[in-house]
Write the C-alpha cells for this entry.
Amino acid sequence: MNKHKDIFHRIAVVSHPSLAEAIETAPKVLSFLEGLCEVTSYASLDEDTLLKSMKNNEHDLLIALGGDGTVLRAGRLCAPYNIPILPINFGRFGFLIEVNADSWEETLTGLFSGDFWFEERMMLNTEHWRDDESLGTWEVLNEAMVGRGDVARPVHLITSLDGRPLTTYVADGLIVATATGSTAYALAAGGPILPPELRNILIMPVAPHLSVDRAIVLAEGSTVTVEVGDNQRAVLNLDGQLPVELTTGDRITVRASKYSVRFVRFQDPGYFYRHLIKLMDQNPSARAN
C-alpha cells in the first residue's frame, strides 16, 4: 500500500464543538502532525474559513474528530472538492468510522507510511419541487426521508421511478438511501444491509399500512420521485439535518449524486462487516440504559 506514501501535505483538523474529548485531543493531533505536513485546525465544520479554504484547494485531507454526525457533515463539505476524510471516533456508534479515539497515533503513523487505501461511497442528490419551482437541493451520504413529521397518522406518498408510476405508499414515511445509509435509518426500519461500495439506491417504507412493505434496490442511474398526496402534511429529512416542511403536491426527486465521499481506510475491506456486527452485538445505546 506504499503507493500512497507522501501524498498528504496540507491537512485540516476539525473537532466536534461539543464533544469534550474530541476538543481536548485536537491539539495533540496538531502537535503530532507538526513537522510532517502543513496543518490547520478548525473548531467547527461550519466555519466560513474552512469552507473558503476547501474552495481554494488549500487542503488535501480532512481529519474529523467526532461521531457519525460529524462524518456526515464532513462528507457534504468535502465531496464537491474531492477531499478525502479520515474520521476518528469520539461518538457513541461510529458506523462510518474505522479509527477509535485511543488508536489515532498509530493510525497517523500508518498514514505517513502509506499504509492505507481509499474507499469511495456514493451520495444522493435530492431536490425539492413545488409546481415548476425548485425550492432547494442537497447532497446527502445516508438518506433522504419523506415522512409524516409530528402528525400521528400515515401519509400518502405517490412514488414514481424514472418518470413512471411505481406505487402509493401509505406509511409513516419512505426512505431513499445509499448503501451507506442502509445501515442507518433504513436498517432500523428493517431494510437490508448493502456493502458500502455498492452504487445502488435503496427504497424502504417506514411502518407501511396496507402498502408494499418490502425494500427495493435500484440501479445507480435511477431517479425516484416522491409526491405528497392530497390534504397531506409531510417533512423531508436529510441525513439528520433540520426537517424541511412539505405540503400537498410537493415533489422530492432523488438520484445518484455526481459527488462521492472518499474515506481513508487502514484495515482490509472486510473491516465493514466486523465493525458492523460488533456494533449490533454491543449496542452502545442499550448499554447506556
The chain has two domains: 2-116+266-288, 123-259. Residues 2 and 95 are 27 Å apart (CA to CA). Residues 2-116+266-288 form a domain with the Rossmann fold fold (CATH 3.40.50.10330). The mean pLDDT is 92.
